[in-house]
């Protein structure tokens, strides 16, 4: 697959990693539909990207809304051959801490957005991709999911987040196996510490401390680097059923 010919949907596309992916696709000449719950940011992002981009307000935890958004995106672009899952949240909470036990609702919300949302988008996109004519290699599409290094190095207070992202990593291989007969690849990226709005509220000394734990280069990741890896995944047909750490070599400490 060529990025310049791709018709992609990107969740969490209004900001951060998702917006970086959308920008990479549009710059290459492809088309993109941004899916996000933030209407103001989503509309602004699509307008800034130009006429090869559009926005659809979408709650990834709402199955009917997801199915409708995918249908609408397919109608607009003519097809969908790439789906990139970047929607997610990452608030901390200890299993049991000074404020008592973690609320079950907190855990469920993390799982619903980060894990269930990824499933809903991926299966709806796969249905759309099945309608594509296969290319010369037999490929109809590619799905990219976003895990986190927390899936493997979960820190104190990350039990809900780590569980949701470990679930994403864990379903990569079976999803790829499920979709192989119709020529759809599935690859997951596990980012480390990236300079996204999720980290934007941190004090500068905390951001510096986080960067110090990176093996090399000692800095936060640039969302454009995530976009570059997505581009490589789309264009590398033999890359499938893998979770790729994109983290500068960091191994997260307990806290």
Give your account of this protein's structure.
- This protein has helices at 16-28, 39-49, 63-77, 104-129, 150-153, 159-170, 172-179, 197-200, 204-212, 223-235, and strands spanning 7-11, 31-36, 53-57, 82-85, 96-97, 100-101, 141-146, 184-191, 242-246.
- The protein is α/β, with parallel strands linked by helices and 255 residues long.
- The strands form two sheets. A seven-stranded parallel beta sheet has the order 3-2-1-4-7-8-9, with helices on both faces. Strands 5-6 form a two-stranded antiparallel ribbon.
- Strand 1, helix 1 (16-28) and strand 2 form a beta-alpha-beta unit.
Summarize the structure.
The chain contains 10 helices and 9 strands. With 255 residues, the protein is of the alpha/beta class.
**Shape assignment:** globular
Task: Specify the helix fraction band.
Answer: 40-55%
Strand content: 15-25%
Query: Counting H and I runs of at least 4 residues, what is the number of helices?
Result: 10
Structural class: alpha/beta
User: What is Rg?
Assistant: 18 Å
Residue windows where pLDDT falls under 50 for at least 5 positions: none
Mean pLDDT: 96
For the biggest sheet, the summary is:
7 strands, parallel
Number of strands: 9
Distance between the termini: 41 Å
Sheet with the most strands: spatial strand order: 3-2-1-4-7-8-9
The H-and-E topology, N to C, reads as EHEHEHEEEHEHHHEHHHE
């Amino acid at each position: 697959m060529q990025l310049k010919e791709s018709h992609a949907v990107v969740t969490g596309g209004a900001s951060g990693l998702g917006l970086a992916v959308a920008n990479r696709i549009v710059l290459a000449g492809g088309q993109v539909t941004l899916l996000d719950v933030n209407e103001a940011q989503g509309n602004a992002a699509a307008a800034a990207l130009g006429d090869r981009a559009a926005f659809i307000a979408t709650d990834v935890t709402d199955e009917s809304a997801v199915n409708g958004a995918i249908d609408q995106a397919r109608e607009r672009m003519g097809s969908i051959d790439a789906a990139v899952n970047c929607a997610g949240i990452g608030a901390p909470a200890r299993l049991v801490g000074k404020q008592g036990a973690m609320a079950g609702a907190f855990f469920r919300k993390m799982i619903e957005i980060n894990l269930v949302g990824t499933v809903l988008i991926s299966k709806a996109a796969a249905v759309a991709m099945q309608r594509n004519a296969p290319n010369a290699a037999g490929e109809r599409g590619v799905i990219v999911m976003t895990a986190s290094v927390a899936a493997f190095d979960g820190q104190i207070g990350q039990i809900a987040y780590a569980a949701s992202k470990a679930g994403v990593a864990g379903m990569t291989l079976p999803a790829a196996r499920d979709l192989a007969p119709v020529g759809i690849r599935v690859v997951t990226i596990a980012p480390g510490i990236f300079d996204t709005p999720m980290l934007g509220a941190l004090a500068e000394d905390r951001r510096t401390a986080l960067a110090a734990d990176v093996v090399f280069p000692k800095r936060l990741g640039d969302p454009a680097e995530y976009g570059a890896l997505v581009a490589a995944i789309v264009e590398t047909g033999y890359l499938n059923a893998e979770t790729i750490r994109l983290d500068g070599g960091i191994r997260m400490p307990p806290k």
